[in-house]
Structure formats: structure tokens, C-alpha cells
Amino acid sequence: MTARDLIPIAVLTILAALLPLVVTSSPVLNFLVFMLIVALGAQGWNILGGFGGQFSFGHAAFFGTGAYATAILQLHYGVNAWAGLVLATVAGGVVGWVIGFLSFRSGLRGSYFALVTLAFAEVFRILANAASFTGGAAGLLIKLDVRAANLQFDDRAVFYWLVLAFVAAVLLLTRWIQRSRFGAQLVAVRENEDAAKALGVDSLKVKLRAIALSGAVTALSGCLYAQYFLYIDANIAYGSWISVELLLAPIIGGVGTVFGPVVGALTLHGLGEIAKQFAGRIPGIDLIVFGGVLVLAVAFARGGILGLLERLRDRGRGMVTRGPKEVSHAGR
Amino acid sequence: MLAVEGVSKRFGGLMAVDSATLSLQPGGIIGLIGPNGAGKTTLFSMISGFIAPTDGRIRFEGTDITAEEPHRRAERGIGRTFQIVQPFAGLTVCENIAVGAYLRHAKRADAIAKAREVARRVGLGAELDRPAGGLTVAGRKRLELARALATEPKLLLLDEVLAGLNPSEIRDIIPVIRGIRDEGVTILMIEHVMQAVMNLCERVYVLAQGRMIAEGPPAVVCADTRVIEAYLGHGAAARLKAEGAAHG
Ligand SMILES: Nc1ncnc2c1ncn2[C@@H]1O[C@H](COP(=O)(O)OP(=O)(O)OP(=O)(O)O)[C@@H](O)[C@H]1O
Ligand SMILES: [Mg+2]
Question: Which chain regions cross the lipid bilayer (chain A) (predicted)?
């Protein structure tokens, strides 16, 4: 990675880190933390879906695993919250690898893979809703005990910085993927799996690595969610709402790009929040906005917001627009 | 270096390849010709590991590779191109070739350098940053060749890399193929352009309806009665001879 790769990430992270110095209202900080948690989970989705072209409709399976893992470890086994965070992330990676092994080895692709991930998430939701060690339908409450050692902070800004640090770390990770052999092979598998194999790419191994990484990052976001709100139940942690959010953010922002998931999460939740301010009495107005933004993105910005900006920039320079990029997106 | 021993492939009721045998020594350009639907591409797919044979063995440098995955065979040094080109359409020409180069070069800088070198060799030097999806037919064929070449194969399987090219494009690419051979890469090429086969190949195999019907130097094979009949139908050889006599 070169300085040119790192500077945009560093600049954006520093700017975002300064935000709590200006904004001190709790609801706004709450909103920002939640938005960053979604962005982090979406970054996880993007590793597998964006770079690997394996669209998952069930990333709740990982989000929920991260959330439940840390909650259960703390409540039933007295594990420290920081250790819980590490273990939850690992658990997400393992669950990802297993789901990947079961589906990729039997050659599932495209819509079949999407449906299988959806099914896994639903099965996990139903199990978590029924089992006693997950708290059943009542869910789990992480004990309120505000100490840094417990990953609970007096000041919301501290949690904001923590989540931001993880988002920045995954931005770096994603940039590394983009510049590495692993990333080149992953993208090759997305574009044409047979051609990739002929060039010596072990497509199963590459996809398994991608889904394990993806699951780990999304589980981390789920863990942070549980740790911030200190409460989860099956419909929150394994609910389809989160699968949809994690899928929408990268698509809106720019699938297979480094910043896409973050831009997408910010846009979706920003617009949703604005809509709530203006038409708060209409229930579900933010969902209507999500739908509207998705339709706009699919109709006018196949590469997401970042793809659109890139095309505008190219046009501004008087260059030809990057048509074939659209073709490759439409082909998936 | 390559031994195909009595290999067959059945697709339902159709014997696409019927106990074909073929053996290559290191070095040289060997042709594989035959009418449309003879089973040439299917044989390539079995050598490169994309299709499992119904019967028979494939050995590469003495090792039985019949059951090996395609990527393992590429690691061993078997490179292939696809008759129906398979570019990574959303990537640039350079990125396409780099995927091949990464097989032997783990570092990005090395892989990119290798990709640029290979691109220049096959005449894609000026298109490095163009999206592969925007290349002409000739460009895509060159890209197929470049990607396979970037894996630094010992054995290169070329499936109709000249098809769809005009005569001047063919004239440009023939020296490139010779150059690859001169570096010690063994080439097995499927080709319909007979002039190129005559020009390039030391030896050709002829496949017809899944069976290997002839083998030898191109000039000898093309005069073979069975080969002429395979292409032109039963009795064609006799007709040609009679016509030749009448005109002579
Ligand atoms: N996957 C498949 N399933 C069923 N039949 C197939 C399959 N692949 C090839 N065939 C059939 O097997 C026969 C051999 O096909 P193949 O593509 O190997 O011929 P070829 O010699 O490469 O022909 P061409 O010169 O037209 O490329 C054809 O009759 C074809 O229709
Ligand atoms: Mg063919």
C-alpha cells in the first residue's frame, strides 16, 4: 500500500474523530454510533459480496452471532467484555467459514447462495428465540456496569471513537485486500470463476477466506451493537432488518469499493433521519426512504454513489464513461 | 511430458471423446485439428481439469493428474485459453493479466511488472489500462493468450486463438506463438486456420467424432484419405483424386 492509498482513509478518520468535539447532543451521538455500527457490518458484507460477488441475504447470521456470543460469554461464563469482543469476532469467522464450506463446496452460487444465507439467518433467529441460554423471546440484558474494563463508557463519545477505530481498521483491511494477491483472486472469482481457476486460482479457498473475514467483521459489528445498547433479542440480532441494511449500504454506496459501505450507511441513515424529522408522524417513513434510495441507485447509479461520482468526474475530464463497469455489475 | 491415455467423455448418449490417446514430448508446437463438434474442446477441458473423463488416464510429467482440480494443474504448469473468450470484463487488461501473473509472483509489484511485460509481448501494451470488456475480438483473443502466458506454463493449450481474426491480425500473432515455443514452452493448439497449422505445427493430431484418426506431420496428415473423408464426407477422397486426375 502506498501513501496515496492511506491518506484518504487517514483524513476521513481524523475528521470523523473530531465530530464529537462539535456535536455533544446524546441523540445525535446515538445516531452516529448506530450508523457506524451498521457501516462496520456493511463493510463485512462488502468483503464477500462486493469483492467476491457472493451476495448474501443473511448477514444477520453473523451480526447476531457476534451479539449473542459476547452477551452469553459475559452473562453465563463471566468472560470479560473485551475478551468477549475478540471471541465474538472469531465466532463470526468460524460461522462464516462453516456456512461457506457447506454452500460453496456444493457449488452454490448467485441466487441459490443468497437464499441459503437467508435460510441460515432465519434458522438462527428461530433457535435463538426458542433456546433458554439465549434468553428465549425475552432476550438478553448485559449488566450495566460502567467501567472501561467492561467496555462500557460514561461518555458516548468514547464508544463512538471505539467504533470509528474499528471502521478505520476495516477500511485499511479492505484497501489491503484491494492491493493484494488475495484480493485480485477474489475479484477474479467474482468476474469469471472458470477463467480464474484456469489461471491457478483455488476458488473454493479464496471464497472461504472471504466469507470467514466477512463473517468476522460483521460479527464484530453485532458485538458492538450488543455492547452499546446492552440488550438484544432474536429479532434484533438475527432479524432480517439487519441483513437488509448490511446489503443496502454497500449497494447504495458502491459495491466492491473501499468507502462504499460507509458512504451508503451514512446516506441511508442520514436521509432516514431527515425524513423522520420532517414527517415523524408517518410510521416507517425511514423505510420508505430506504426503498426510494435503492430504486434511484438501481436505476441511475449502478456502481452506487461512488460509481456515480467517478463517472461524473470522468465526464468532467472529457473522458469516455466507464461503460464496461456497468456491464459487469449488471451481469451479476 | 503429457500423456492422454484412452480418454473418453460421454455426454448422455453422445460420445464426445472416444478413447483418445495423445502423447507430447517437451518442446514444439503440436496441432489438434478436426471438424466441428469432433470433441477437441472437450479433450482440452479434460486435460486442464474442467471436465472429468468418463474413462482413461491423463499424466503430466509422469504424475497421474486425472482427478486433480484445474487450479492444481495450472500450478503444475498447464495453461489454457478458452475458445469462447472469458475475460474478467469489469477489470482492466493489466488487472486481467495480473491474475495469471500472481500464480508465480505473490507481490503486487512483481505481478504487475510481469503482466506489463506479457502484455507488450502479445501486442496489448497500449491497452493496459482499458477495461477488458471494451476490447475488440482480436484484443480479447490476445488477452486470453496473455493471461495464460502470465502463469508461466510449461504446456500451453490454445483453443482456436486465431479464429475470428483477419489475415493481417493472424500474421501479427503467428510470430508471437513461435516466440513462446522458442522459449521452451510446449504448445498444443486447436486450430481451423489450416494455413497457420501448416506454418506452425511440427506434428498434428486429427480428431473426428471423438476418435483420434490420424497423427503425423501436417502435410502427410492432410493427404490422408481418412482425414479428407472426416472433413468432406465419405467418398470425398476418391472424388478429389478423380477430379485431380481429370484436371491434371
Ligand atoms: N457440456 C456439454 N454437454 C453436452 N454435450 C456437449 C457438452 N460440451 C460439448 N458437447 C458436445 O460434444 C461434442 C464435442 O464438442 P466440442 O466442443 O468438444 O467440439 P470441438 O471439436 O471443440 O468443436 P468446434 O470445432 O466447433 O469447437 C459436440 O457434439 C458438442 O455438442
Ligand atoms: Mg471447440
Answer: 6-24, 31-51, 57-75, 82-104, 158-177, 210-232, 244-267, 287-309
